[in-house]
Amino acid sequence: MILRPIDQLLPHAGKMILLDRVMEWDAERILCERVVRPGDAFVQATGLPAWTGVELMAQAIAAWNGCQVLAAGGTVRPGFLLGTRAYRADVDAFPPGTRLLVEAVRNFHDDEGMGAFTCRIDAPGMHAEARLTVFSPHDPAPFLDPRNSLDSRGTPP
Known about the structure:
With 157 residues, this protein is of the alpha+beta class.
């Protein structure tokens, strides 16, 4: 298990990287850390809003994928959050200074890139959880091409 800097594992850049580091990972699971700091993206006076927990979980899954791909000699590529089920957080915000542990456990993952993960965020006296569905295609280019998008009526341009 090689622990790489988080910016090598994610297709994100700069302030959009919301995780600080990977603590451990294996074929089925990843554990990441985030310390809530004033001035960071999305952080308000009360802290990091709990709704950002979904993105923290999605980035943990992306980091898991990055670990898997790099270990196999591949290249990190974009993936897509397709949805979540029953995201629950027992706080409205994670206060500044809080050390968050973000875990994602693989429930399902196929050869085409579809996956489902059970995720959680834990800190003293705080907990959030959800199940996320993701898609990491071998070639994300067709999905990122604006010519393949739908207009506001749901029809191709």
